[in-house]
Amino acid sequence: MILLCILILLALCGSAHGTCGGICGLRPMHATFGSSRVVGGTDVLPGSGAWAGIASIRCFWKPPISVHVCGGTLIDAQWLLTAAHCFTNITNPISEWAVVLGATSLGQSGHEVEVRRIKRLIIHELYVPKLEYNDIALLELDRPVPCSSSIQLACLPGPTVKVSELKNCYVAGWGDRIVKSSGRDILQQAKVQVVNNKLCNSSDWLQGYIYDFHVCAGQGGVGTCQGDSGGPLVCQSKHGDFFWQIGVTSWGVGCARPKRPAVSSSTQYYYSWIQAMMRKKPAVTPVPAYTTPLQTLPPKPMQPCPFSREKLLNFFNLLKEILKFLKEKMF
């Protein structure tokens, strides 16, 4: 009986440093995060176990230099969920990109942080740039990630989960800001209101741009912004102290404007696609047959990696020479 209890406890808590798998949504945020004082954006404290499923996707990685582009969430030991538009017009091979997990600061390093290269990028085959239809993608990592207090899996709602009944919803990211944040490189979190799609699509709100594959969330003064794309929108389960990731941050009209909530891709809508893609054998990713858009969406909160690998290396080599010259002059 004692052995059985221990096994159940391990299953509920997850392995301290074992390969991720089976357990999800245990600690998306700090236990005291639900109060109204966090609305508007607050720092995620290091070591709090908060947002343990979130990851930073870097288009350039050569420590101590890296360039954050998008957020993502770990949904399996070797798979990351993010937005498709993070990879439009990329300037260097995807194999040179990196995924950083377990960090709350972009410059953080240490035993709690894991870095992986990207083995495979899968963009939804019906993704349409500019319109941002089917704005969802998967990254297969080069090797599995071990679970720990700072790294755990996000929970995706299947068809039977009643997403509309979920409460206490939150967003997180390292973007320009979750509005009114400090602007530093520390992960930000904020409580948001999920807006019914019918209201979100009305003439006073987003005027016909919202479809079944979207989720709207945010309010005036609170929401996601540039660099938060691909990150999670999560809501608390009615049946326990864990959270479902109901959205992947996609686009928005400005940042946190009244009646202009941020728009996420619905993870429930794409649940079957996500499961199918993770089971699919590796293959050459086909180039989507894009159609000419009939309309153009407002600006989305994301830009591709702004510099090529060569430009970044040249810049930092030049910076190194300048610092060396200044040091010689001083001494």
From TrEMBL:
SMART domains: Tryp_SPc. Keywords: Disulfide bond, Hydrolase, Protease, Serine protease. InterPro entries: Peptidase_S1_PA (IPR009003), Peptidase_S1_PA_chymotrypsin (IPR043504), Peptidase_S1A (IPR001314), Trypsin_dom (IPR001254), TRYPSIN_HIS (IPR018114), TRYPSIN_SER (IPR033116). SUPFAM superfamilies: Trypsin-like serine proteases. CDD domains: Tryp_SPc. Residues 38-279 form the Peptidase S1 domain. It comes from the Eukaryota. It catalyses: Preferential cleavage: Arg-|-Xaa, Lys-|-Xaa. GO terms for biological process: acrosome reaction; proteolysis. Signal peptide: none annotated. Pfam families: Trypsin. Its EC number is 3.4.21.10. GO terms for molecular function: serine-type endopeptidase activity. This is Acrosin. It comes from Corvus moneduloides (New Caledonian crow). The gene is LOC116438636.
